[in-house]
Amino acid sequence: MQVIIDKYLKLYIFVTYYGILFLVGGINMPNVYDYLKWRGDLSFQVDPFNEIDALILSEIAYVEFNQVLSSNNLITLKDVAESFLSNSDEQRFSFIKDSLILLKECAKYSRFSKIKLANYVNELDYQNDKQFAAITFYLNDHDQFVAFRGTDDTILGWKEDFQMTYLYPVESQIRATNYLKDILESNKLSKLGSSLKVADIKKYPKIILRWIKNIITKSHVYVGGHSKGGNLAVYAVSNLSNQLTKKITTVYNFDGPGFNQTMIKQTNYQSVTHKIRKYIPENSVFGIMLESLEPITIVKSDARGIMQHSGLTWQIIGTKFEVLDSMSFDSKVLSAAFDSWLDKVDLKTRENAIKTIFTTLDSLEIKTIDDLTKISFSDLFSLIKQLTNLDDESRNAVIVFFKTLITESTNFYKLYHLHNPEDNS
To answer: For residues 310 and 150, is the Cβ–Cβ distance under 8 A?
Structure first.
């Protein structure tokens, strides 16, 4: 009883303290790091898994665990974090480094430090245009969160994102479905056998009792991801059998893009929308692309522009996000312009343009975003030369691709501002 009282007392102090400071203009509303300080000592049994926990684990999924985790071993989050203390520089891109910092911070708090990580896969398939990574977080003996990584710093990952405008499904969506299916179909009885095999015979009764308890206790399987990871989570759950879908408690999509009409009309997707929670920042760029059926929650961020895509900038009140009534002016314009662009640029033109652009980048051996930022003047000249020397069909596809997007953005910006002058903020 005292634990419950302490829980709600801390929540009251948390909301009151930050609320007063925010109203007087002292600070911004808290983010995930403040959440860790105030809620990090509460177990999932005392304070159930929530949307903030899902965001944190979805962000941690960006960490490259290649040297730490295999596909099968179970390691606590605290042990994983400690293994990174000497090699943090291996995380290349800025948001991946931010996720590593978050991982190490989570390791300091009992709510997260005891979580076990397993089933990590990280696949870059240049032949089939696939960038895919996933990991399963075992919150306790009976609850788990399956996280799909969003687009990383590889050009391959960005190419697959662009493919979503003309191709359905993309390779990572198919892989995500198979990964989730394998997790859900894992045989608990075989896990019991493995545990008994490696354990001292004196521990058998304890292991068997824990196994029986897990069967009796209602388990929760949460699925989610940030950016493309959120899209993969929704696609994977929508393509499971009805029997496996019943095992899913909630699907979390954090600023992930939507789908084309083929997916929208799919019966399975329509039947699971009540399980899906989609969140986008007020100035969303990626989460407003393509279409979604599930309700969207708009979250306040302390960042500007496209930097709001990072969930680490999202504002929190207690165990919930700080919610807004509508998107920003820029997001509304971009959403309308993107929809119009999709209507006016046919699938074949999109495909030709995207293949041309990424083939050109590949010819210059640009493999990561970091490579792109370090491009030399001679490489830039070579890039321009290759684009100007394209055959007519490819060159026209690239021109139409970008010209239409720019034109539609400009037109909708002017039109929206004309009819909603008070919303231009």
So the answer is: no
